[in-house]
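Exercise 7.
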Amino acid sequence: MKRKAFKRQRARCQRVIGEWLQPLGLLWWETTINYYDDPAEFPGGAGSGDSHVAARVWAQWEYLQATVAINVPEVAQMDDDKLERVLVHELCHILVSEMRADPDVCTDHEERTVTQLANAFIWTRDRAREAAQQ
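Solution. The predicted structure, written as tokens, is:
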């Protein structure tokens, strides 16, 4: 990916993440965002059987620290709505990361939970915007 295109995609992600950190209560967290231009270097992306993963999160909930990895070539294929949904979903993983401390919690349950949380947060934001316009 050309440098200018990479910067444009990184800026799109930064805008979305910047918009959502406060509403999700994540300003208390130390959150590092890493951008990967090469899908082969994306942690757990290419080579894991799922090279279409756009983002992943690792969190140390005990210390309020999280890392978000973003697969820039995948992000480049998304419209703004899809990008927001994906990134809010990933940020919601930070919120529930403590669930992983329980070995009986299935990752499928976590995936469904963060999807529903992301949907609820976006829906609530959209309704508030609609109400403000009336």
